[in-house]
Design goal:
Helix content: 40-55%
Order of helices and strands: EHEHEHHHEHEHEEHEHHEHEHEHEHEHHH
Strand content: 5-15%
Number of strands: 13
CATH superfamily of the largest domain: Glycogen Phosphorylase B
Shape: globular
Number of domains: 2
Distance between the termini: 12 Å
CATH topology of the largest domain: Rossmann fold
Largest sheet: 7 strands, parallel
Strand order of the largest sheet: 3-2-1-4-5-6-7
Length: 448
């Protein structure tokens, strides 16, 4: 029975799927410890695994970013990020690149010391590390501890080669393709980050573990053994780096459960008054864009045929409460929605292109209108576009009529393609990923 430590950053969108993987590893006989910030202990309990309190970064998101208790500087940077999304795709990605300089390697000594203590106390056979937890990966690299990489979002988070830069989409959806000057500006900022962090990683590795080869590129540091992707394998994706086994699990979602009696009553009421029901959710950060949420809901209500709407509004639920008042019983506005559980009961979704929303829609066979705003969402949106499972629009400058037209355009073709992809990913998921990971790591990593 291997002993495995799953190390997650303190972000709900990362910790939830990693806890699902932890549970799947446990069910296949592994002794699993879930290491994350104390606020996420409940996820370990739900997964049936041991919990290790471990904080690996100074910012956090426990479910709704704007209401998470964190330092004033982190709250200010979150506000700056949201403002940047209003200026467009390139400006957002440039802002995120600048923010990384403050938090990507904030406390490498502390993370290294904490993981060294874990390693000495538990002596795990191997670890599972989020690809975006670069300080954790660097620490394990310096400790010589074997680990597998979990890629929580778009597969290009694992850099495909020297021309790929973290924070630059491998491709853009048609509606958001930047002009050459903006694209060049983004690449320049990302290239500077690449050089800066590679230097920091190299210096830390040489100070801490001179006997270990220093990482050549910080953002390309990943497991030499296995990378598990919470994403489907798509033929047009860039070729991943040689060396590790690349395992595409399709999704990392829990077994289908009921959304509960209260949500079933809400959904039944919507069905009584509407021809179709649409879920609107922008994830744990971007629900702050209540201007876009308002436009989306207005457009859905104007679409042909009666449409019922469920809106996950985060901290902006009170600000959007009037939508429910104006539309009678055709709109439900809530701070949070049990998205995975509600998806089987809706006809379409409007989301931001987050990896979890994208793969959850695939699993449920639900087509989507995608409004990407940051991070890897532009690459995810482009994939949805190419797969034929969604339409993509620019959230800035969006009009209600655009939303109504897009919803009406999500016709039989999108439903058919979504059903096809639901079948494609149904044979994979966390169980498949856990089994393949155990096989690969068992072959490649000797007991410690």
């Amino acid at each position: 029975m291997p002993r495995i430590v799953v190390v997650s950053p303190p972000f709900a969108s990362h910790a939830v799927p990693m806890s699902v993987l932890a549970s799947a590893l446990r069910r296949r006989g592994a002794e699993v410890h879930f290491a994350c910030a104390p606020a996420f202990e409940e996820l370990a309990a739900r997964a049936g695994v041991a919990f290790l309190p471990l904080t690996v970064t100074r910012n956090a998101n426990t479910g709704v970013a704007q209401t998470t208790d964190q330092a004033a500087t982190e709250s200010a940077r979150l506000a700056e990020f949201v403002d940047a999304t209003r200026a467009g795709a390139v400006e957002t990605l440039v802002t995120q690149a600048h923010h990384r300089r403050a938090d990507m390697l904030a406390d490498p000594e502390g993370v290294h010391a904490a993981l060294r203590a874990v390693d000495e106390r538990l002596r795990p056979d191997w670890y599972v590390v989020d690809q975006l937890s670069y300080a954790v990966t660097l620490a394990l690299h310096c400790l010589g501890a074997p680990y597998a990489t979990f890629c929580p979002g778009h597969p290009t988070y694992v850099l495909s080669g020297p021309e790929a830069f973290f924070g630059v989409p491998y491709d853009w959806p048609e509606a958001l393709r930047p002009d050459p000057a903006d694209a060049a500006r983004l690449r320049a900022v990302a290239g500077e980050n690449d050089r800066l962090f590679s230097g920091l990683f190299t210096d830390f590795a040489r100070r801490t573990a001179p006997e270990v080869p220093a990482p050549e590129r910080a953002f390309a540091l990943t497991s030499p053994h296995a990378v598990l992707y919470s994403y489907p394998s798509l033929p047009w994706l860039p070729e991943p780096p040689s060396g590790p086994a690349h395992l595409f699990a399709g999704h990392m979602t829990r077994p289908v459960e009921s959304p509960g009696a209260a949500w079933l009553r809400r959904l039944d009421r919507l069905r009584d008054r509407a021809d179709r029901v649409v879920l609107v959710a922008f994830g744990t950060f971007l629900s702050a864009r209540d201007d876009v949420l308002r436009t989306v809901v207005s457009g859905l209500l104007d679409a042909a045929g009666a449409t019922g709407v469920v809106v996950a509004a985060g901290s902006r639920a009170e600000a959007l409460a009037d939508l429910a008042d104006l539309a009678g019983d055709r709109v439900v506005v809530a701070p949070t929605v049990p998205q995975q559980e509600v998806l089987p009961y809706v006809d379409a979704m409007v989301h931001h292109g987050g990896g979890n929303s994208f793969t959850e829609c695939l699993r449920a066979g639900v087509p989507a209108l995608v409004l990407p705003m940051s991070s890897d969402q532009f690459a995810v949106a482009r994939d949805a576009e190419r797969m034929g499972v969604g339409l993509v629009l620019d959230p800035n400058g969006l009009l209600p009529a655009d939303v109504a037209k897009a919803l009406d355009a999500l016709g039989e073709s999108a439903f058919s393609r979504s059903a096809h992809w639901a079948c494609e990913v149904s044979g994979r998921g966390p169980g498949w990923g856990a089994q393949r990971l155990l096989e690969v790591m068992g072959d490649r990593v000797a007991g410690r």
